[in-house]
Amino acid sequence: MKTILVTAIFLWGSLAIEAETIDAQSTWVDIQSNATYSYELPKIRFGSLNVRADRVCYYKGTHGYMLMTKDKVASRCTQVLDWQEDSICQKYEMVQLVRPQYVTRSVCVETLDWQEDSLCQEYETQFFSTPLSYDIDVYQVSADQETEISVLAFSKNFTFDACRE
Fold it and tell me: What is the largest CA-CA distance in the chain?
């Protein structure tokens, strides 16, 4: 009877250890909830706001894929009190942000330096694409009171979720 009990405890303990194993097949939720692992997801630019990739989804629009924040992350003015030249927003609402997967930006390609200030002399329109998936390095972190060591544990693919309709 003792042998059966000891064997059962050993098997239960080994299953618990195995259940906590984190590797490339683990879900992102499991990896994030384990404090001994760290990773950095890319940030997706929506105008002047950067949003972590796990907070962004995609959908097929009429002119290609669109990226959208999963949550309402920005405020938009919905009611303005206009005092001649000065206008004051009286009411805001939170909104989701949307942008195309492919964008163009005006980029400075030649500057004129005047001491510490630099002025752009020539701009160029450049084409940028945001991939829908990334290979992310996941690190195992160990620390004591004085140092923290991060060692590459594995790489895992991250793909944007499709937006819910």
Answer: 90
Q: Which residues contact 137 (CB under 8 A, 6 or more apart)?
A: 39, 152, 155
Residue 12 within any structural domain of the chain? no
Containing structural domain, residue 76: 35-162
SS3 51: strand
pLDDT digits 0-9 by tens, 29-77: 999 999 899 999 999 999 889 999 999 999 999 989 999 999 999 888 8
Q: Is the Cβ–Cβ distance between 55 and 69 less than 8 Å?
A: yes
**pTM for the predicted model, two decimal places:** 0.71
Q: d(Cα 45, Cα 124) in Å, to the nearest integer? A: 19
- Six-digit token string for 30: 């499991």
